[in-house]
Write a structure and sequence with these properties.
By secondary structure, this protein is of the alpha+beta class. The chain has one domain. Helix content is 49%, strand content 7%. A four-stranded antiparallel β-sheet has the order 1-2-3-4, with helices on one face. Strand 2 and strand 3 form a beta hairpin. Helix 4 crosses helix 7. The longest helix is centred in the middle third of the chain and has 18 residues. The radius of gyration is 18 Å and the shape is globular. This is Twin-arginine translocation pathway signal. InterPro entries: TAT_signal (IPR006311). It comes from Mycoplana azooxidifex.
């Protein structure tokens, strides 16, 4: 079993990975076991069928970096990128596009790979370098729909769904948006 956290001691913190885990973490700890990416502390997992589990874990981190929402749990990002695994199982060219794209991200990130970069700004800098590639465009284009079209996620953004069946927007909170 491999965790996403780096195996070496961070020079800045002086903490080993084990000490960090004992004290608690910020964000979810993802564990790769067999063909699955699992979040044991958040009780969810996603099984891969075509893509490598490491690739799926990187796609989850990538999705959060493309569409960052601090209060949205990782499981919604996992659900959103699961479609990449499904499409990769049906289309070998798409599988190669995703696997090569993730390998490129890892190579650009250096030792520890893309997921090993601790700062979001460092990962975003790499994404800016690859934003015009077919890999990035395929993932980003799919995420806009697969992430934001999850009905369970809508309450996080204050969206109540379609309103026609409930009388329309004019009679149902047209001007009560509090976050705007």
């Amino acid at each position: 079993m491999t965790t996403i956290f780096e195996r070496r001691r961070s020079p800045d913190s002086g903490l080993s990975r084990r000490e960090l885990l004992k004290r608690g973490t910020v964000g979810a700890v993802l564990v790769i076991a067999g063909n699955a990416v699992i979040s044991p502390d958040r009780a969810w997992g996603v099984e891969t069928t075509a893509l490598k589990p490491d690739t799926m874990a990187t796609l989850i981190k990538l999705a959060r970096d493309i569409y960052p929402h601090d209060k949205v749990p990782d499981r919604f990002y996992a659900i959103a990128v699961k479609g990449q695994d499904t499409k990769a199982g049906q289309d070998p060219a798409h599988r190669e596009l995703i696997e090569v794209g993730v390998a490129d991200l890892d190579a650009r990130a250096g030792e520890g790979g893309y997921r090993g970069l601790g700062w979001e700004d460092d990962r975003v800098a790499i994404l800016r370098e690859v934003e015009s590639t077919p890999f990035f465009q395929a993932v980003r284009g799919d995420l806009v729909v697969s992430f934001y079209n999850q009905k369970e996620l809508w309450p996080h953004f204050g969206y109540e769904g379609e309103s026609f069946s409930k009388g329309g927007y004019l009679k149902r909170g047209f001007d009560d948006i509090e976050w705007l």
